[in-house]
Write a structure and sequence with these properties.
heterotrimer, A alpha/beta (275), B mainly alpha (320), C mainly alpha (446), B: 320 residues, mainly alpha, ABC transporter involved in vitamin B12 uptake, BtuC, two-stranded antiparallel sheet, 11 helices, 4 strands, 71% helix, globular, C: 446 residues, 15 helices, disordered N terminus, disordered C terminus
Chain lengths: 275, 320, 446
C-alpha cells in the first residue's frame, strides 16, 4: 500500500514497482548483433523512451519484447513472469501491446473491424458459438463493438464517424489513431509505440503528444516509446534510454540525457553528419 | 512414374546386380531431373516464383520433337553419322521450343504481375500450365504416343549390369549443359547480372542491370535446359504424353527444393538424389511403381517441414 | 521480388484488353432489369433471396419425366456440391489467404466415407471380405466432414509454417497422394472403386419420399440444396465472427495480426480444418447422388476447377463464389454435353471437306479445361478481384464508403505490395457505383 502511495506521488514513477525488466538482452542475426546486452527497467505508469540513431536496434528491441523474434540471450520479465520466447499472441494476452513504425492496418477491413481484431483475445474463439451465434457469443460481440466505438471515441467523435470506412481510405494521422485504438483492444498494461509521430507535421505531433499523455492517464497504461523527434521525447518522457550499435550508452531523466556527452557525440553528432 | 515400366530390368539378375542396375537407372533419370530442376531453381532464385508451368515447358519439347521426327518419317535408327546430326537437330529444336515458350509465358503472364502479391503470379502459372497441357492434349490426344527408337540398343554389360550407350549419352549431354550453365553464370556479364538480380533486384537495377532483360534471359535458359531434357526423355522413356510434364515437373521441383531452391548446385544434386531414390523405390518397395510418386511427395513434405532450406540452401534471414 | 517499375510495354497489353472490355462494362452497367442494373441483383441479401427463390421453384416447373428439367435437376445437384466445395476452398484461400492446391483430397475422403459407410463390406489386405456395419446417410454427413476435417489438421499442422507458395505445392502433393493411396490399398477395392448405397426412402405424413427415383430428382435436389444453404449460412456466420476477422487479418498482415493477439497456428489450422470439413460434406453428398466412385476419378483437375470457381467469382466473396461454381459447373455438366453431342453427331455423316469439320475431332471436355486455364489467367491478370468482388456487408447496407476494389481480392493474399492494380483495374461489375458512393476505387493508387 505504501508503495502504491509513492507511485502516485512521484512525478516520474521511479519508485513504482517494475512492470518490464529486461536483463542482458542479445539479438543476433547470423553474424550481425543487432542488440548487444541491453538492460531496461520500466516502472508502472512511466512513459519511457528509447532513442538512438538509425540502426541502433530500437525496433529490434520492440520486436523481441513482442515475441516477433526469439532473443538469442537475456531475460524479459513482464509483471514478474518471463516472456522471452513466448509467441506474440501469448504476450498480447499477458498485457503487452504495440504499434508499428510503418503503421500496419488491415487495409481491406473497416476501421471498426480493425479495432475488433484488437479485441481478439477477449472474444470467444470457438467455432460452435460462432456458427450458431449462441446468446453469450452475441452478447460478447455486441460488447466488443461497443467497446471498439468507445476506443475510437478516445480520438473524438470524428473517428467514430469513420468506423465503417475501409482502413486503406484513411489519412495518415487517422491510420495512426486506428492502430492505437486496435492496440488498446486487448486491455493492455504496457503499450509499445514505435515512432508514433513519424511523418506528422507540427500540429499533428502536438496532438499526438497530448493523446499519448491521455493514454497513460485514462487507460492506466505504461508506455514504452521509440521516438526520433527529440522535442517530443524530452517533453513527455519520465526516463530515456539511449541505444547505439545495439548497446545502451546512457539512461536517465531527460535533463541528464540532454547533458550526456556520449549521447551528444554518438547521437546528435552523427545525425548532424548525415544531414 | 507409370512410364518407367519401359526401363525395368528382368528379375533374373543377382541382388547385387539389381542394385547396381537400379543405380544406373537412377543416375540416368537423375540427369534429366536435374536439367528440369535447374529451371525451377533459376527462376525461383531470381523472382521467387514457383514456375508451375515449367514441367509443361519440358513436355512441349517432347511433343514437338515427336512431331518433327514423325514429319521426317523416321521410324528406326539411321546410321551413326546421321544419328548424331539428328540428335543435334532435335536438341536444337527442343531447346528452342521450350525456351521460346518459357520466354513468352514470362512476357505475357508473369511480367504484368511483377508487382502483384506473391500468389498472383503463382495462380497465373497454374493457369499457364493448364493451357499448355490441354493444347497438347487437343493436339496429340489423351493417350501415350510412342517415340520411335532412333537410338540403337547398344551397350556394355558388367556382370548383370547393363549400361546402354544411350544412358551414357544422356548423362554426358546433361553434364555438358550443366557445366555450360555454371560457366555462363560465373563468367559472363549476363550471368553476373543474374546473380546480382537474385541477390537484390533493387540494388542491381541501381547498378545498371537491366532487370527485365535479365529475368527474360533466366526464363530462356531455364526453358532451354528443360527442352534438352525433353529430347533426352523422348530417347529414354520413348512415350509422349500431355501429362508427363505435370508429373515430372513435380519430381523436378522436389529435386530443386531438396537441393535448396535458388542454388544451382543444389538442383543438380537434388536431381540425382531423387533419381536414385525413385529407381530404388521402384525396385525395393512392394508395389513400388504405384508408390513412386507418393514417396517423392513424402520426401518433399519432410524436407519442407524439417529443413526448408534444402541440402545446400542458405537460411534466409527473417525480415519484419 | 523484382521491384523495378514495369516498363510501359510490360503492362500495355493488359491495359489494352481492359480498354477493349470497357464496352462490355458499359453494356453490363446499362443492362437493366426492372429499372435496376444487373449487378444490383447479385449483391448482398437480394442475391440470397433471388437465388433461393429460383432454386426452390426450379423443380416445380411442370415437366414430363425425361425432359430437360429432370437432367437440369441432376446437373443442379452437382452444382450444389461444387458450391459447397467452392465455399469450403474459399474459407482457406479467400479468407485465410492460404493457397490449397490439393483440395480434392478432402472431397475424396468425404466420398469414401459415404461409400464405405453404406457399402456393407470391406476388403482386408489378403483380399478377404469382411462385413462392415452400414450407417444411415444422414449420420455419414457429419462423420465424413469430421474425418476430412481431421485430415485437414493432420496436413496443416506440419506445413502451415511454410511460406504461401510452398504450402501450395505441399497441398498439391497431398491431393495427388490421397487418391493414389485409395487406388493402391485393397481395403476399398483399389482401382476398381466402390459403390455407395443411395439414401433410403423416408416415410412422411404426405407419403414416401424416394431419393433414387429416376423420374423424379426433386427430393435429392432439395436435400442437396438444403445442405448447400446450410454451408452458405455457416460461411456467412464464420466470416462475420471473430474467427473470420482473424482469418482476414492474417491474410492482410500476419505480423500485425499476431501483434493483435491472433494465434497464427490455431487460426490457420482452423481455416484448413473447416475448409476440409466442408470438402468432406461435399464428398458425402456427391457420392450419395452419384454413387460409383473410383480413386483415379479424383484428379488435380477438380482442385483446379474449384479454385477457378473461387477466382472467377471473386476471392473471398460468398455470392461471387456461388455464382462462379454455378456458371462453371452448369457449363460443365449441362451445356457442354448439349454442345458436344450434336456437334459430333452432325459431322458423323458430313463429308470430310465440310466447313468446320475439324470440330468433329475436338474433344469438348478437353477444350473445357483449356477454357478454364484461360479464364484463370485472364482473371488474375485483368480482374483479380473477380466478377462479383467481396463487397462488405456494411457498405451494402448503408451505401457509404468504397472498398479498395483493386486490392480487395488477390491483393488481399499478402499485403506486401498492395498497389498492384488498384488504379488501373476496370471495375466491370463494381457494385459501389450503385450504392451512392461512386467508384473512388478507380483513381486511387494503392
Amino acid at each position: 500500500m505504501a508503495q502504491e502511495q509513492a507511485t502516485a506521488n512521484s512525478p516520474t514513477h521511479d519508485q513504482a514497482p517494475s512492470l518490464l525488466q529486461i536483463n542482458g538482452l542479445v539479438q543476433r542475426f547470423g553474424g550481425l548483433t543487432a542488440v548487444d546486452g541491453v538492460d531496461l527497467d520500466i516502472r508502472k505508469g512511466q512513459i519511457y523512451s528509447v532513442i538512438g540513431p538509425n540502426g541502433a536496434g530500437k525496433t529490434t528491441v520492440f520486436n523481441v519484447i513482442t515475441g516477433i523474434y526469439k532473443p538469442s540471450a537475456g531475460q524479459i520479465l513482464f509483471d514478474g513472469t518471463q516472456v522471452a520466447g513466448m509467441k506474440p499472441d501469448q504476450i498480447v494476452r499477458r498485457g503487452i501491446t504495440r504499434t508499428f513504425q510503418n503503421i500496419r492496418l488491415f487495409n481491406n477491413m473497416t476501421v471498426l473491424e480493425n479495432v475488433l481484431v484488437g479485441q481478439h483475445t477477449r472474444l470467444p474463439g470457438d467455432v460452435v458459438s460462432a456458427l450458431f451465434r449462441l446468446p453469450n457469443y452475441r452478447r460478447a460481440e455486441r460488447r466488443a463493438e461497443q467497446r471498439a466505438i468507445e476506443l475510437l471515441g478516445f480520438f473524438g467523435q470524428g473517428m467514430i464517424e469513420r468506423k465503417d470506412e475501409y482502413a486503406a481510405n484513411l489519412s495518415y494521422a487517422e491510420r495512426r489513431r486506428v492502430e492505437i485504438a486496435r492496440a488498446l483492444g486487448s486491455s493492455p498494461k504496457l503499450m509499445l509505440l514505435d515512432e508514433p509521430t513519424a511523418g506528422m507535421n507540427d500540429a499533428e505531433t502536438a496532438d499526438a503528444v497530448q493523446y499519448i499523455q491521455r493514454l497513460r492517464r485514462e487507460f492506466n497504461l505504461t508506455i514504452l516509446l521509440i521516438e526520433h523527434k527529440l522535442q517530443v521525447t524530452m517533453g513527455i518522457s519520465d526516463r530515456i534510454a539511449v541505444l547505439d550499435y545495439g548497446k545502451k550508452i546512457a539512461e536517465g531523466v531527460p535533463a541528464e540525457i540532454q547533458r550526456n556527452e556520449r549521447v551528444i557525440e554518438a547521437y546528435l553528432g552523427r545525425k548532424a553528419a548525415v544531414e | 512414374m507409370l512410364t518407367l515400366a519401359t526401363v525395368m530390368i528382368p528379375a533374373s539378375a543377382s541382388p547385387v546386380g539389381i542394385f547396381f542396375q537400379q543405380l544406373e537407372i537412377g543416375i540416368t533419370l537423375g540427369a534429366m531431373y536435374a536439367l528440369v530442376a535447374l529451371g525451377y531453381t533459376l527462376v525461383y532464385g531470381i523472382i521467387e516464383l514457383i514456375n508451375f508451368a515449367h514441367g509443361d515447358i519440358f513436355m512441349w519439347s517432347t511433343v514437338v520433337t515427336l512431331a518433327v521426327i514423325q514429319a521426317m518419317g523416321i521410324t528406326a535408327s539411321p546410321g551413326p553419322v546421321k544419328l548424331i546430326g539428328l540428335l543435334i537437330l532435335l536438341l536444337a529444336i527442343g531447346m528452342l521450343v521450350s525456351a521460346t515458350l518459357n520466354y513468352t509465358i514470362e512476357r505475357f503472364f508473369y511480367k504484368p504481375l511483377r508487382k502483384a502479391p506473391r500468389l498472383a503470379p503463382l495462380i497465373a502459372a497454374i493457369g499457364a500450365s493448364f493451357i499448355l497441357e490441354t493444347i497438347a492434349q487437343l493436339w496429340r490426344g489423351s493417350s501415350f504416343v510412342a517415340f520411335p527408337s532412333i537410338f540403337p540398343s547398344v551397350g556394355i554389360t558388367f556382370g548383370s549390369v547393363r549400361v546402354n550407350l544411350l544412358d551414357v549419352v544422356i548423362v554426358i549431354v546433361a553434364v555438358v549443359l550443366m557445366y555450360g550453365l555454371e560457366r555462363f553464370i560465373r563468367l559472363t556479364r549476363m550471368g553476373k547480372a543474374m546473380r546480382a538480380t537474385a541477390q537484390d533486384p533493387e540494388a542491381a537495377a541501381l547498378m545498371g542491370v537491366n532487370i527485365n532483360r535479365t529475368i527474360s534471359m533466366t526464363f530462356i535458359i531455364g526453358g532451354a535446359l528443360a527442352g534438352a531434357a525433353g529430347v533426352l526423355y523422348n530417347l529414354y522413356i520413348a512415350q509422349v504424353w500431355f501429362f508427363t510434364g505435370f508429373q515430372l515437373g513435380l519430381i523436378a521441383f522436389t529435386a530443386a527444393v531438396l537441393g535448396g531452391i535458388g542454388n544451382i548446385y543444389g538442383a543438380v544434386l537434388g536431381g540425382f538424389v531423387i533419381g536414385l531414390i525413385e529407381a530404388l523405390t521402384i525396385q525395393y518397395v512392394p508395389g513400388g511403381f504405384a508408390w513412386a510418386d507418393a514417396v517423392v511427395f513424402a520426401i518433399l513434405v519432410l524436407i519442407l517441414v524439417f529443413k526448408p532450406s534444402g541440402l545446400l540452401g542458405q537460411q534466409i534471414p527473417n525480415k519484419v | 521480388m523484382a521491384t523495378q517499375t514495369p516498363s510501359k510495354a510490360a503492362s500495355s497489353w493488359t491495359a489494352g484488353i481492359r480498354r477493349g472490355t470497357d464496352g462490355i462494362r458499359r453494356w453490363l452497367n446499362e443492362t437493366m432489369l426492372a429499372g435496376r442494373p444487373l449487378i444490383w441483383y447479385v449483391t448482398g441479401w437480394r442475391f440470397a433471396v433471388i437465388a433461393l427463390v429460383v432454386a426452390i421453384l426450379l423443380p416445380l416447373v411442370p415437366t414430363s419425366a425425361y425432359s430437360d428439367i429432370q437432367s437440369l435437376l441432376v446437373a443442379m445437384i452437382s452444382v450444389f456440391v461444387y458450391i459447397m466445395l467452392a465455399l469450403g476452398l474459399n474459407i482457406v484461400v479467400g479468407y485465410a489467404g492460404l493457397l490449397d492446391l490439393g483440395y480434392v483430397a478432402f472431397f475424396v475422403i468425404g466420398s469414401y466415407t459415404m461409400a464405405a459407410g453404406t457399402y456393407g463390406s470391406i476388403n482386408d489386405f489378403a483380399g478377404k471380405l469382411h462385413d462392415l456395419p452400414t450407417l444411415p446417410f444422414i449420420l455419414l454427413i457429419p462423420i465424413g466432414a469430421f474425418i476430412a476435417g481431421i485430415f485437414g489438421i493432420l496436413l496443416g499442422a506440419p506445413t502451415l509454417r511454410l511460406r504461401g507458395d510452398y504450402l501450395a505445392i505441399v497441398t498439391l502433393g497431398f491431393g495427388e497422394i490421397v487418391p493414389v493411396v485409395f487406388a493402391n490399398i485393397p481395403i476399398f477395392f483399389g482401382q476398381t472403386g466402390i459403390s455407395a448405397t443411395q439414401p433410403a426412402p423416408i416415410t412422411t405424413p404426405v407419403g414416401i419420399i424416394s431419393f433414387t427415383d429416376p423420374f423424379n430428382h426433386a427430393p435429392f435436389y432439395y436435400l442437396a440444396l438444403a445442405v448447400a444453404v446450410l454451408v452458405t449460412l455457416g460461411c456467412y456466420a464464420l466470416r462475420s465472427s471473430s474467427i473470420g476477422r482473424a482469418w482476414v487479418a492474417i491474410r492482410e498482415d500476419e505480423t500485425a495480426a499476431e501483434a493483435s493477439g491472433v494465434n497464427l497456428t490455431r487460426t490457420k489450422l482452423l481455416a484448413f480444418a473447416l475448409g476440409a470439413f466442408v470438402g468432406g460434406i461435399g464428398g458425402v453428398i456427391n457420392t450419395a447422388a452419384f454413387p460409383s466412385i473410383t480413386p483415379l476419378g479424383f484428379s488435380f483437375a477438380i482442385s483446379i476447377t474449384v479454385l477457378i470457381m473461387v477466382v472467377l467469382g471473386g476471392i473471398g466473396s460468398i455470392p461471387g463464389v456461388i455464382i462462379g461454381a454455378l456458371v462453371l459447373r452448369l457449363f460443365d455438366v449441362f451445356l457442354l454435353q448439349r454442345i458436344n453431342d450434336p456437334v459430333h453427331q452432325s459431322f458423323l455423316v458430313a463429308p470430310v471437306n465440310a466447313p468446320l469439320h475439324v470440330l468433329a475431332n475436338v474433344d469438348f471436355n478437353t477444350l473445357k479445361l483449356l477454357i478454364y486455364g484461360i479464364v484463370l489467367v485472364a482473371m488474375i491478370l485483368l480482374r483479380p478481384q473477380g466478377l462479383i468482388p467481396d463487397a462488405r456487408r456494411r457498405r451494402e447496407l448503408k451505401g457509404v464508403g468504397a472498398a479498395p476494389e483493386g486490392v480487395s481480392a488477390v491483393g488481399a493474399f499478402e499485403q506486401e505490395e498492395a498497389g498492384m492494380s488498384a488504379a488501373t483495374t476496370a471495375d466491370v461489375l463494381d457494385p459501389s457505383e450503385y450504392t451512392g458512393a461512386g467508384s473512388d476505387a478507380q483513381g486511387r493508387e494503392g
